[in-house]
Amino acid sequence: MLPKYSKILLPVDGSECSKKAALHAFSIARSYGGEIFAVHVIDIEEEFLTGTYYEELLQKLKERGQKILEEIERMAEEHGIKVQKIIKTGNEAEEILEAAEEVKADLIVMGSHGKSALAKFLIGSVSERVIRHSKIPVLTVRSSE
User: Fold this and answer.
1) CA of 23: how far to CAs of 42, 59, 111, in Å?
2) Angle of helix 51-78 relative to helix 16-32, nearest 10 degrees?
3) Mean pLDDT of the region 87-112
4) Using CB atoms within 10 A of its CB, is residue 59 exposed (0-12), middle (13-18) or buried (19+)?
5) Which of 62, 73, 111, 135 could form an SS bridge with 18, CB 3.0 to 4.6 Å?
6) Any idea what the CATH number is for the domain that residue 22 is in?
7) How many separate domains does the chain show?
8) 17-47 pLDDT tens trace
9) Which comes out higher in pLDDT, residue 141 or 122?
């Protein structure tokens, strides 16, 4: 039996690469009659910030995340797709995987920016960590750079 992708998680960061991934997610959702859950993760190190500055920065990052999600929602509407928006705070890969479990996603569609070999060696990439630890299929869409 062929898989049916009814709940698709779409991590977005505002980059052209994540917008390109969104188009793939919309196509899959339309083909399978699936739902899109767009998630934006604010990756901020609390231990390095204190008090009011942290709260102000977090608020600005949440506002930015909301704008990114609203842009994805507009793109989806142009293609006749509905999107549910999620903002999370924490480690990007961990929060993406957690969101996938929370919404019971059966597919993750995400951009892959293509870091240099040295950057991959030193810190890895979010998409690589998601692929490595995901219990569901992950479709990565490379940037055209």
Assistant:
1) 22, 28, 11
2) 50
3) 96
4) exposed
5) 111
6) 3.40.50.620
7) 1
8) 999 999 999 999 999 999 999 999 998 766 5
9) 141
Q: Answer yes or no: is 2 within a domain.
A: no
Q: Can you give the residue range of the structural domain that contains 93?
A: 7-142
Q: What is the DSSP string of the chain?
A: ------EEEEE--SSHHHHHHHHHHHHHHHHHT-EEEEEEEE---GGG--HHHHHHHHHHHHHHHHHHHHHHHHHHHHTT--EEEEEEES-HHHHHHHHHHHTT-SEEEEEE----HHHHHHH--HHHHHHHH-SS-EEEEE---
- Average pLDDT rounded to a whole number, residues 78-91: 96
User: Comparing C-alpha atoms, which of 137, 39, 121 is closest to residue 88?
Assistant: 39
